[in-house]
Amino acid sequence: MPATPPLPADPLIAPSRGRTRRTLLKAGGALLLSVLAPLPARAAQILAVRVWPADDYTRVTLENDADLKTSHFIVKDPERLVVDIEGLDLNPELKSLVAKIQSNDPYIRQVRVGQNRPGVVRLVFDLKEQIRPQVFTLAPVGEYKHRLIFDLYPVQEMDPLAAMIEKGEWSSDGVPVGQPQVAEQHPAPGLPLPDNRIPAPGVPSQAVPRPDIAKVEPRKPEPPKPNDKLVRMLTIALDPGHGGEDPGAIGGRGSREKDIVLAIAKRLKAKLEQHPNMRVMLTRDGDYFVPLNKRVEKARKVDADLFISIHADAFIKPTARGSSVFVLSEKGASSSAARWLANKENQADLIGGAQSGGADPQLASVLFDLSTTAQINDSMKVGKAVLQQIGGINTLHKNAVEQAGFAVLKAPDIPSILIETAFISNPEEEARLLDNNYQDQIADAIVKGIRAYFAKNPPLAKNRLT
Ligand SMILES: [Zn+2]
């Protein structure tokens, strides 16, 4: 744990008096004005400090009671990010940030906090490598007051395919003929799966035989040659909803949707990977937020054959219950409840916190319009197959696949479904969602649904890789 850093000795935090005076004398009117300007009647207070470290990026959130003005810059040798925040009181909550940086944070070595000059608090992030910072504010939403966000991205953004190859999770095409195909393959039901049986990164799993773990340089795999009589690998993108700043729905016992859906997704991943022709990409594998368009982008980068978003439902009335499956709709929602739910899920970016203008939404919508109907038709088939299996283990909220405008289902070329596994707002179903057995059952049901879909709709040879 980082000890209290020697703040006053650090010239970045507290410039020596002599230097301050010289700077002031040299400075033009602007700086003098800003120093002499009357301080606001009451300085802003930091209400909460949160840190979300992840391989994708580390986020630091300062929740406060006013919209804060900041400036930031990078200092080299060693690499540091310096942030000045105006009109802020240096309170114990803000100082607690120092102890919240974990030693295994991928990007931040430590942070130092101090009063830099009257009315200005300075944060210095000592970094482990060069980063690309995104600093932005978010207006109050839901339970949150104003938020000041620092997202520290690696200079070279993590490519999901390269990440899978690095972890040994990109098993390549090339299961020889004679190996059972998806359709005829024996399922592995009832195999006891201990919690989170995910091999540590870099450690090949003992339990999952992988004939061809790619220990190669990150690169796009070569598309199979047309006359290769091989079973094609299927890539499934699993998308645990919410994460990080966005807890999703919260149950009466305080359980959070983001934790439950991540646990279910990890079980599902392990079960799918027992099939030699399936590999799985998780859009997030930890407790951090991934913007909705980023989730779609990740699935497209690995050229996924299927996108499955996993959620837990909630309603004002605790009696609402049952599982549901949704696909996108071309025009309007299939019911007002579906529309309401899609609106709620689409708010994730506001709560989870996404800087606007990252992706190109216009390009996405053009691509999407070209292939909407085909995508929805395929998604409907997957949805029906999965819903039928889930119906065997839980009450269904509706007996049919529903449709609405979920942003996360808008991959133009990937069949995409969103599963509401059960109602976290229903006490009985909350208990089930927290139960290892139920998590296993729902994961098994989804695997069966996916396999039934591919059995009826055999995947074509890939020609989309270019
Ligand atoms: Zn959700």
TrEMBL record:
GO terms for molecular function: N-acetylmuramoyl-L-alanine amidase activity. It comes from the Bacteria. Residues 212-228 have a biased composition (Basic and acidic residues). Residues 172-228 are annotated as: Disordered. GO terms for cellular component: outer membrane-bounded periplasmic space. The keyword Glycoprotein does not apply. Transmembrane segments: none annotated. GO terms for biological process: cell wall organization; peptidoglycan catabolic process. It holds the Pfam family Amidase_3. Its EC number is 3.5.1.28. The keyword Cell wall biogenesis/degradation applies. Keywords: Cell wall biogenesis/degradation, Hydrolase, Periplasm, Signal. Residues 296-451 form the MurNAc-LAA domain. It catalyses: Hydrolyzes the link between N-acetylmuramoyl residues and L-amino acid residues in certain cell-wall glycopeptides. It is found in: Periplasm. Belongs to the N-acetylmuramoyl-L-alanine amidase 3 family. This is N-acetylmuramoyl-L-alanine amidase AmiC. The lineage of its organism: Bacteria, Pseudomonadati, Pseudomonadota, Betaproteobacteria, Burkholderiales.
